[in-house]
Design a protein that fits this description.
about 100 residues; mainly alpha; 434 Repressor (Amino-terminal Domain); 6 helices; about 60% helix; elongated
């Protein structure tokens, strides 16, 4: 995980690339997707990870793929965990090529 790009939470992408440009209110999106408003609110506040169920619904609504949303979450999780574990990971040697 040597990427210099910052970790981006899927909630930030949902908020900045979809809700704001399309002028979609979070509660309106929740109603359309038939999910609790709190689920969308927590996601766009970057306070919760995206679920597989929500990824499927967002993909259908926004004509993306569920993998788009899930890969973004996985990337975010890996980058934030790698940062948290940096000192520990730095102590692990890499295998030598034969």
């Amino acid at each position: 995980m040597d990427s210099k790009l910052p970790a981006v939470h899927p909630g930030e992408i949902l908020r900045e690339e979809y809700l704001v440009p399309f002028e979609i209110d979070p509660s309106q999106l929740a109603s359309t997707l038939k999910v609790p408003s709190e689920d969308i609110d927590l996601l766009i506040k970057e306070a919760t990870p995206i679920s597989a169920e929500l990824a499927l619904k967002l993909a259908k609504y926004f004509r993306t793929s569920p993998e788009f949303w899930m890969h973004m979450q996985a990337s975010y999780d890996l980058k934030t965990q790698a940062a948290a574990m940096k000192a520990e990971l730095d102590k692990i040697p890499e295998i030598e090529a034969a």
